[in-house]
Amino acid sequence: MSRLATEFQRLYAAGPEGSVRALVLDVGRPSDWELLGAVWRGVQLDLSLPAPAIAIAGENSYQLWFSLQQGCSPDEARAFVDGLKARYLSGVAAPRVRCLTEPPVVPAEVKEGQWSAFVAPDLAPVFVEATWLDIPPGVEGQADLLKTLKSITPQAWRAAIELLAPVETQDLTPAFAPPSHDASAAAASAPATGFNDPRAFLLHVMNDATVPMALRIEAAKALLPNT
Fold it and tell me: pLDDT > 90: what percent of the chain?
């Protein structure tokens, strides 16, 4: 098995019992890296997810490839993609956005003389006028692009699903419930940490880089003055 095949299998092999391990978000017709680049950056900054792979797919489109450590249900996969659309692509016409749960072969000749390929983030804008290569990409180079990528852990996946859920349907479990603006309630609901001052505790959470971003944001919100 080639290095490329090994890396592809590591990231995008089918999940157990037909569950979804790979999600491919395809946006184009016409291609627009500025648009999809905002999604690529957003899932890392807003959702604390590892960087997805970037592919030029032919058909005037770019793709983001998400890899899950464990498979998810088709319903969860749809919820994730719907959440991405609502958060980052709400103004994009529906026919321009596609989601694939069975990843295509990449690289491949999608049309005569047009090859799909994985590309580095800094090179993605170069292909906006033609989202393909004229010749097959180097197998070793493609493997190098994939080997640095990581799969989404189950914990990060659950947090992302929670953050992307519509507000009216969010299941605000204790791990993700917004902290109360009442200081005593915030202190009571928080695990014991040795902090006597709820404000000091919230400041600590907000500035702790090891705490999930969602909780740091909620701590910052709790510190805002009531209006």
Answer: 67
Q: Which residues pair with 212 in a beta bridge?
A: none
Alpha-helix runs per DSSP H in the chain? 3-12, 33-45, 74-88, 139-147, 154-164, 183-189, 198-207, 213-223
Write down the domain spans for the chain. Answer: 3-155, 172-223
As a whole number of angstroms, the distance between CA 10 and CA 12 comes to 6
**Rounded CA Rg of the chain:** 20
3-155 folds as Alpha-Beta Plaits (3.30.70)
Report the Cα 115 to chain-centroid distance in Å.
25
Q: For the chain, how many residues are written?
A: 227
pLDDT of residue 5: 96
pLDDT tens-digit readout, 202-212 = 666 666 666 66
